[in-house]
Amino acid sequence: MSFDLQGVRVVYPGRAGPVQALDGVTLRIATGERVAVLGPSGAGKSTLLRLLNATLRPTSGVLRIHGRDSASLRGRDLRRLRRGIGTIFQHPSLVPPLSALQNALCGRIASWSLLRSVRALVAPPPDEVRLARSALATVGLIERAGARADELSGGQQQRVAIARVLVQDPQVVLADEPFASLDPGLTVQLADLLGRVCEKRTLVAMLHDVQLAVERFPRIVGLRSGRVLFDLPAREVTPGRLQDLYAREGGG
Amino acid sequence: MKRAVLGGAVGAAFVLCWMGAGIQPSALADPANLRAVGGFARGLFPPDVSPAFLRVVGEATVRTLGISVAGTVLSAILGLLLGVLGTASLWRRGPLVEVDGRGFASALSVGARGLARFLRSVPDLVWALLFVVGFGLGPLPGTLALAVSYAGVLGRVYADLFEAVPEGPVLALHSAGASRLQVFAAAIWPQAAGSVTAYTLYSFECCVRSAAVLGFVGAGGIGAEINLSMRLFEYGQVTTLLAAFVILVLCVDALSRALRGRFRRNAVHGSGVLRDVVELRPMRRGLPILWALLLVAAFGQAGFGALLAPGAFQHLGRFAAQLFPPDVSPAFLASILGPLWQTVAISVIGTALGMLLGGALALPAAAPLMFDPEAAVRPVRALFYAGARLTLALLRSIPELIWVLLCILAVGLGPFAGVLALGLHTAGVLGKLYAESLEEVPPDAVEELRGIGASGLQRLLWGAWPQARETLASYTLLRWEHNLRASTVVGLAGGGGLGLALYNAVQLGFYDRAATLVMVVFLLVSVTDALAHRLRRRPAAETAPDSALTLVAEAG
C-alpha cells in the first residue's frame, strides 16, 4: 500500500480563529517502505497520522492512498480501506471493560457483518479466538488474555494494541510515538517486536527519539510547523539538520 | 451451568410477573377501546383558551408552584435535622474515628436513618391520601405530603453527603477539642454546603412534578383540575392544563439549572453533580425581604391558613387515633397477598416495557450514533434524532398518574393499564438516561475502532456499549425501585394492586386496614431497596453517593 500526498493542507476550526496544522505537504511513501517522521511537538505529526489512516480529510490538496483519492471514499469503501491500515497510538485506547483477548479480536471487526459482531461479543468464533490468542502469545501476554484492559499496565496495553494490529493483518502499520510513555528497557523490547511484526508491511512511525529513528529506519522525514523540512536517507541526516528541525522559534 | 440456572430463574419469575400483571395485548385492539382513545385524541383539540378557563389554569399553576416551594422548604428543614442525626460518624461514642457500632449515640443515627427510610418508602401520593383525610381537602395535605416524603429523601442524601466529606479537617478539629456540633459547623457543613444546595434544587424539581399529581387525591393545583376536566370529558381543557404543567416544569428546571451554576457532566456516569461547585454569594440588600415575601406567599398558596381554623388539630387527632391498632387479622393479611403480587408484577413488567421502548428510542436519540463526524449531516437522520428526543420528552413529562387515566381509556380499568402507564413514563426517563450515557462514553477507544474500519453500529456494540452497560444497568435498577413505589400509586387511579386496596380502605373508612397497607408498602420497598443495593455494583470510584444518584435519575 502506498501513500501520495500533494500540497496537502489541514486547517482546524480553533476557538481563536482557524489553526493551520499542515501547510502544503508533498510526500510519497511506496509500498514496503519504512519511514520515520521526526519533528518537535506541534509540528503536525499526529495530523499527518490521522490523514494516513483515513480518519481525517485534507482541507485542500490531494491525498491518494493506494492510488485512490481518500476524499472521494465514503461508507463501506472507506471502512475497507481502513481495514488495511493498522494504527498504534502513544496511549492506546483499548475499550476498558473488554478483556485483552476481546480487544485483540477487535482487529477483525471491519471484516464482520453486524450480526457477527453481536455474536462475537458474546461468543467469538473459535478460529478467530485462536488467531487472537496466538497474537497475544507473540507479544508475550497470553497469560493476561482474560484481564480487563484497564487492569493492564501502560506497556502491557501497548502490547495488546500491537496484538490487535497482528490480528488485523494490515498492509500498512502507522505508529504515533508508540514508545514515548515507556521506560528505555521496554522501548528497545517493543521496538524489536514492532520491527518483527512489520517485516513484510509498510511502516510509518512518528517518533520523538532521534537515535531510535536513525538506527532503525532507512528514511527520515523532518516535519516542522506543518511543512516538510527534509526528506532524506537516514545516513544523510546530519546533526545540523536536526538542530534546524528542533530549533526554537525566533532562533532561541 | 450456574448461568443457565440463574437465567431460568429470571425467566420463570418474568413469566409469573407477566401473568400477575394481567397483560392482555388484545385489549389494545378492541374496537370499543380504540373508539374511546380516538374520541379522546380528537377531543384534545382545540385546546380551551377562553379567558375564564385561562384564569383557572393560572390560579392552579400558581397554587402548584406554591405547594412545591413550601413543600421543598419544609422538607429541607426536616431533612437537615434527619441528615445531621443520621450522620453516624458525628454521633459515635468516644473518639470520632474509632468504629464502635454500639451505644445510645449510634442508635440515634440508626433511628434517624430508619425514620428517613420510612418517610421516603411510602409514596408521596399515599401520604397525601392520608393527610387529605386528616386535614380535609385542599393544598395543605399536598404540601405536607411533599414535606414528609422529600424529607425522607433529603435526610438520606444529606447524611450521605456529610459522611462523604474529606475527613482531614474533621479529625483536625476533633483532636483540637471541638464538640461534635462544632465539628459539624466548622468542618463538615462548609465542605458539603455546595452539594447540599445542588441536591436540594434537584429535589425542588422533583417536588414540582409531584405537586402537580397530588391534586388527583384532592390536594389542589393543576392535578385537581386535570382530574376534574377528565371526569367532565372536557379534553380541550386537559390539553391546556398539560401544556401549563409542561411549561411550569421546563421553567423550574431552567431556573434550577441556572442556580446550580455551571453544571459539568461526569464522563460516563452522568453524575458529576458532586463536582459542580455552587457559589453561595451573600445576598444583596433588599433581596432577603423579597425572598421572605415570596416565601410567605408560597405558604399562603400552600394552604397553611387552614391550620389556623378552629378544630383542625382535633380532627387530625381523631383520624390518627383511628389508624391504630393496624388490622393484622390473618384473614385481612391473606387478602393482601393478591394485590401485593400484582404490585410487584406491574413494576417489573412496566420497567421491562420502559427498558425496551426507551432503549429503542435511545439509539436515534444519541447524537454520536446519528451524526457521523465524517459524513455530511443527513436531513433524514436529523429528523429521526429530533423526533426521538421529542418523543422521549413527551413521554417523561406526563406523570405516571395521568398516563394511567389515558391507558384506562385504551385498555379499561385494571393492572394492564398500570403496566402501560408505568412503561410509557419509564421509557421517557430511561431513554433519555440511556442516550446520555451513550453520548458520554469517553471517545478515544471508540475513535480507534473507527480507525480500524468499524461501522457506526459496530462502534456502538464494541466501543460504547461495553463502557456504558454498567451505568445503563444501574439506572434501570434505580428506576425499577422507583417504579415499585409508583406501581402502588398507579393503583390509586384504577391501575390495580396495593394502591387500589389502599384507596378503597381509605374511602370506606377502614383506617386500621389502611395503616396495615401502608406498613406493607414500606416493607416491600425496604426489602427491594436492600436487594437492589446488593445487586448494584458499580466498580468505578463514584463521586456521588448512591442516594444522590437516585435523585438525579428521578429528576431526569
Please provide a written account of the structure.
- The complex is a heterodimer of chains A (252) and B (556).
- Chain A is of the alpha/beta class.
- Helices cover 35% and strands 25% of the residues of chain A.
- A six-stranded mixed sheet of chain A has the order 6-7-8-3-9-10, with helices on both faces. Chain A has a four-stranded antiparallel sheet with strand order 2-1-4-5, covered by helices on one side.
- The longest helix of chain A is centred in the middle third of the chain and has 15 residues, at 154-168.
- Helix content of chain B is 76%, strand content 0%.
- Mean pLDDT of chain B is 81; it is low at 262-283 and 538-543.
- Chain B has helices at 2-20, 31-43, 51-86, 88-91, 104-121, 124-135, 139-163, 167-175, 180-214, 222-231, 235-260, 287-301, 312-322, 330-365, 367-370, 379-397, 400-411, 415-439, 443-452, 456-495, 497-507, 511-535, 546-555.
- Chains A and B meet through α2, β6 and α4 of A and α19 and α20 of B.
Gyration radius of chain B (Cα, Å) is 24 Å
Our measurement of the CA-to-CA distance between the termini of chain A, rounded to an integer number of angstroms, reads 40 Å
- Helical/strand content category of chain A: alpha/beta
Percent range for β-strand residues of chain A: 15-25%
The H/E string of chain B reads: HHHHHHHHHHHHHHHHHHHHHHH
Kindly, what is the distance between the CA atoms of the first and last residues of chain B, rounded to a whole number of angstroms? 39 Å
Rg measurement of chain A, Å: 19 Å
Summarize the structure.
With 252 residues, chain A is of the alpha/beta class. Chain A has 9 helices and 10 strands. Helices cover 76% and strands 0% of the residues of chain B.
Features:
heterodimer, A: 252 residues, alpha/beta, six-stranded mixed sheet, four-stranded antiparallel sheet, 9 helices, 10 strands, globular, B: 556 residues, mainly alpha, 0% strand
Topology (elements, then pairings):
The complex is a heterodimer of chains A (252) and B (556).
Chain A: E1 3-12, E2 19-29, E3 34-38, H1 45-52, E4 60-65, E5 68-69, H2 75-83, E6 85-88, H3 100-105, H4 114-122, H5 126-138, H6 154-168, E7 172-176, H7 184-197, E8 202-207, H8 210-216, E9 219-224, E10 227-233, H9 239-246
Chain B: H1 2-20, H2 31-43, H3 51-86, H4 88-91, H5 104-121, H6 124-135, H7 139-163, H8 167-175, H9 180-214, H10 222-231, H11 235-260, H12 287-301, H13 312-322, H14 330-365, H15 367-370, H16 379-397, H17 400-411, H18 415-439, H19 443-452, H20 456-495, H21 497-507, H22 511-535, H23 546-555
Helix pairs in contact in B: 1-14, 2-17, 3-5, 3-7, 3-9, 3-10, 3-11, 3-12, 5-7, 6-7, 6-13, 6-21, 7-9, 8-9, 9-11, 9-23, 10-11, 14-16, 14-18, 14-20, 14-21, 16-18, 17-18, 17-20, 18-20, 19-20, 20-21, 20-22, 21-22
